[in-house]
């Protein structure tokens, strides 16, 4: 088995620790930035849902501020955002390079996308359910938790899966500027040193990870169908 691996992946086999370090760094970036982005994106998505015109907490100024901020950051290409938030990364994380330095730009690149996805997921809730909850005397917080979130478990899982897949792509892109992870591994060794086995292994591993995430998300969605 070892001989087979050394034959098809000679450059990877020489320094396997590089691959495993890159894989670990990718998981660390995805988990940390994903968890923070999930919380912030969910809060912002709920906020723009309940403060829009005709909603249970209609507030035009609040809605306009968050709506415009989402549009602003979504319009900035991630590779530019990476360099644009470097000063903020240094301020918060103490560095703008490596895994720690990538967390802040990954959050800025993910939260606007996820917030808009959450808004779309909550929009699938039947307005009749919200009106019925209001007629029963439920307050805004009760409606958010017992109607919007409870009725949107499937759609929220779906958009979370989509966002996680997108986030993995962003971590690979962050590797282009020295953030570490599989992206940096593929560029530094696969591209710069023309080691094709490194490039192909990275592609195969990322495809497997993405498909596992998608499979897990699909199973959760099926279990939460009414």
Summarize this, please?
With 226 residues, the protein is an all-alpha fold. It has a single domain (23-181), classed as MetI-like (MetI-like fold, Orthogonal Bundle), CATH 1.10.3720.
What does this structure look like?
The chain is mostly helical. The protein has one domain (23-181): MetI-like fold (Orthogonal Bundle). Helix content is 82%, strand content 0%. It is elongated and about 70 Å long.
Helicity range: over 70%
Ends distance: 48 Å
Relative strand content: under 5%
**Run of helices and strands:** HHHHHHHHHHHH
CATH topology: MetI-like fold
What is the number of beta strands?
0
Total number of helices: 12
User: How confident is the prediction overall: mean pLDDT?
Assistant: 90
CATH architecture designation:
Orthogonal Bundle
The CATH superfamily is identified as MetI-like
Instruction: State the secondary-structure class.
Output: mainly alpha
Radius of gyration from the CA trace? Answer: 21 Å
Major sheet characteristics: none
**How many structural domains in the coordinates?**
1
Low-confidence parts: none
